[in-house]
Amino acid sequence: MDADEQEIFIEGHPCVVVDCVEMRYRVASSAAAEPDTGQFRSRFLHKAVSKPNMVTVRALNKLSLVVERGESVGIIGRNGSGKSTLMKIISGQSKPTRGAVYASSTPIMLGVNAALVPDLSGDQNVILGCLAMGMSRADVDEKFNSIVELSGLETSIHLPMKSYSSGMASRLRFAIAASVDPEILLVDEALNTGDAQFGDRSKRRMDELREQAGCVFLVSHSLETIKDMCTRAVWLDKGDLIMDGAPDVAIKAYQDFTRHLSKGNNISATKILDDAKANLVATEVRGRSSRRSRG
Ligand SMILES: Nc1ncnc2c1ncn2[C@@H]1O[C@H](COP(=O)(O)OP(=O)(O)OP(=O)(O)O)[C@@H](O)[C@H]1O
Q1: CB–CB of 257/240 below 8 Å?
Q2: Can you tell me the distance from the alpha carbon of 77 to that of 251, in angstroms, rounded to the nearest whole number?
Q3: What is the pLDDT of residues 114-159, one digit of tens each?
Q4: In angstroms, what is the span from residue 239 Cα to ligand 1's centroid?
């Protein structure tokens, strides 16, 4: 540690600790692997067509966060900045390439957690999904009617799930996931594909869950929603943590950044990004304790 670094030990009751998480995806690219030059043109062309050029997408770069009980964390950033990737890692749906996530209980992602079976009917999937989330059979029986009601599927609940539209399927998943009262709640608004009527109903249930939860992560492109609902905002860009702090401060910086970008002022936009990064108090998790050090 440098002499001018400042260490802040985090006291309290963390719900979620994200420890130096990195996520890389290996994907096939249709771009040629090497430049197409002179006499080797046909050989390279053959190579590009016959063998996929594998590239690495850096979705998250060494990200650490400590989220305390009572916090509601909004995740903001441009498309492709790593927001959904972070949520999937926290919920346990994706395994990070490096690093780890520690949570005081199983985080529940609204809408996608339940692993359902397309050949089974909606009501059979309600039972399956609830049992998979750790409910007892008695709990399932007690909550069954309210889940079916929240899904709004009415008689379609008896049809096989493979016959559902994607909106109907996501309503069922939401209703199942929302039937538990999670301590750690994850909401990715990009997954909210229900119609207006379901939107109202799901928002009401989401509000209830948020009030009861120990901590909440919310991904939204609506900055107003983040301002209204969150006590803390995390700004991601190209997989990097840019800012972590009060929602109004982070949102203002992010809005300034996107305003400059949309006007084509890339240099001033980059300066805003660099300034924000320079002021970041990075979290570092060491051994059994977590601390923030100013680098
Ligand atoms: N399954 C995957 N395979 C390969 N690359 C992926 C995969 N999922 C995400 N990515 C890449 O990881 C990066 C981050 O994606 P992510 O979905 O986390 O962004 P996001 O901030 O949630 O974006 P948006 O606001 O558009 O929903 C992007 O470059 C994306 O292309």
Answers
A1: no
A2: 10
A3: 568 999 999 999 999 888 878 899 999 999 999 999 899 999 999 9
A4: 9
Closest ligand 1 atom to residue 236 Cα is 21
Give DSSP secondary structure letters for 111-176. Answer: TT-----TTSBHHHHHHHHHHHTT--HHHHHHHHHHHHHHHT-GGGGGSBGGGS-HHHHHHHHHHH
Q: Residue 62 Cα, ligand 1 centroid: separation in angstroms?
A: 16
Place of tokens 């599927």: 153
- What percent of the residues of the chain are helix, what percent strand, and what percent coil, each to the nearest 5? 40, 30, 30
Complex prediction ipTM: 0.98
Q: Could you tell me the pTM of the whole model?
A: 0.79
Beta partners for 282? Answer: 293
Q: Residue 39, exposed/middle/buried by CB under 10 A (0-12, 13-18, 19+)?
A: exposed
Name the pairing type of β-strands 232-237 and 215-219.
unpaired
Q: Are 26 and 225 in contact (CB under 8 A)?
A: no
Which residues is 290 bridged to in the sheet? 285
Two tokens, residue 88: 């999937």
> pLDDT tens-digit profile of 48-57?
556 678 899 9
User: What pLDDT is stored for residue 1 in this prediction?
Assistant: 46
Strands across the sheet containing 53-68: 53-68, 14-29, 98-103
Measured from CB, residues less than 6 Å from any atom of ligand 1 are 25, 27, 57, 59, 77, 79-85, 190
Residue whose Cα lies nearest atom 11 of ligand 1: it is 59
Query: What domains can be seen in the chain, in order of their start residue?
Result: 6-110+178-294 (3.40.50.300)
